[in-house]
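Suppose a colleague, Dr. K., hands you the sequence of a protein chain of 80 amino acids and asks what its three-dimensional shape might be. Before reaching for any lab equipment, you can write down a predicted structure in token form. Begin with the sequence itself:
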Amino acid sequence: MRNQNTKPHAIVTGILCRSAASFTRFLGTRAESLLAALRRVRLQSDQSNLSDLSDLSDKIAAPPPDRVLAFRLTAARYHG
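The predicted structure, expressed as tokens, is then:
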């Protein structure tokens, strides 16, 4: 039996806040990876006077495959 003091909008707000926090952590992780990769490339270019940064995409960490798959499955479920 549901607590009579709990309002439905409070439940929805709680769910949205937890989802937003998870998504923010995910974005933060990606942003940190990107910044770290750019710092490594900058240090490398400073040390070796690297003129060609064509391998930059190799140095940027891709999202973990399980998170990509989870995002695609969620998107397919809602847009399906």
